Amino acid sequence: MTSQGTALRFGYGTNGLADLRLDDALALLADLGYDGVGLTLDHMHLDPLAPDLAARTGRVARRLAALGLDVTVETGARYVLDPRRKHGPSLLDPDPEARARRVDLLLRAVRVAADLGAHAVHCFSGIVPPGDDTATAWERLAAALTPVLEAADTAGIPLAVEPEPGHLLATLADFHHLRGLLGDPPALGLTMDLGHCQCLEPLPPADCVRAAAPWLRHVQIEDMRRGVHDHLPFGEGEMDFPPLLAALAATGYQGLTVVELPRHSHAGPHYAETSLPFLRRAAAAAAATAPAASGAGAPVTAAPTAAAQAAANPAVAAPAVAALVTAAPGAANPVPAVPDTTVREGSTP
């Protein structure tokens, strides 16, 4: 690691290239210079429910190796389990058999990730079903994730849970609540969508990164506006990327930072082509300004020191997040009290 942290490695999500065959999508990303891919298991991209999954996974692994692409496995496909219910069934479904289908998908994803040599498997909680209380939902989530975490631990693949606006587990504070419920298992990690931090976290995105550093296993990135869960191309939101990327590099994070534009597949190749230069310019700007701000011989900024302290003592970071939300962890989707800020419903990718 340099004084400015690790060099960030960028990828692009296949859920933003849904109109391309998987092989074509991988070739495109390699040609554009990406370091890797966020591979969403879906009917058009390495269908996790179709026959011969292991053989098909082996072919994809060989293709990734030939192209020099790393991979994280994502499980946020909208209709892979149910053609009529977006993201259904979830880990919170009242029907145990329905929940078991989602658990089976995640177990398949762990096996795929192990065969691909992936950095992590991504997942999210789901929305609390109408009429259910949050205490019951947390119990279901913890029980459903337990066998997945056991499989992930055996495979040596982190299970990186994503706080998703509108879901039961919506914030960093909620993630720490889940850690407590599960007894902080070693396979449990965090997927941090940096746009979600802009959308609803009480901390600024760069501070979210510092607070979450010990648990970061996967990172997603896009532009976003405060209070509106809408994944935007870079430059169309409100986010300030050089200090955000500086904070991320300073943590020593070594996984992929994956562009997440699932509503832009109609122009996926265009946004894949334009996103990487934007991120590289932002990363270069972060690297260029950090030494001037710190002075010779001093830390780059106060941020790396905070991240290092959190990594050395993970208990430090959780209260830093939880203390700044307006409801305790485990309450119904705590949202910071920001005037005129309401997370828009129905905008989950």
TrEMBL record:
Checking SUPFAM superfamilies in the record gives:
Xylose isomerase-like
Per its UniProt entry, which superkingdom is the organism in? Bacteria
Which residues belong to any copy of the Xylose isomerase-like TIM barrel domain?
26-281
Tell me any Pfam family this protein matches. Answer: AP_endonuc_2
Q: Which GO terms describe its molecular function?
A: isomerase activity
Q: Which InterPro entries does the record match to this protein?
A: IolE/XylAMocC-like, Xyl_isomerase-like_sf, Xyl_isomerase-like_TIM-brl
Keywords, ordered alphabetically: Isomerase
> Mind telling me what this protein is named?
Sugar phosphate isomerase/epimerase family protein
> What organism is the protein native to?
Streptomyces lonegramiae
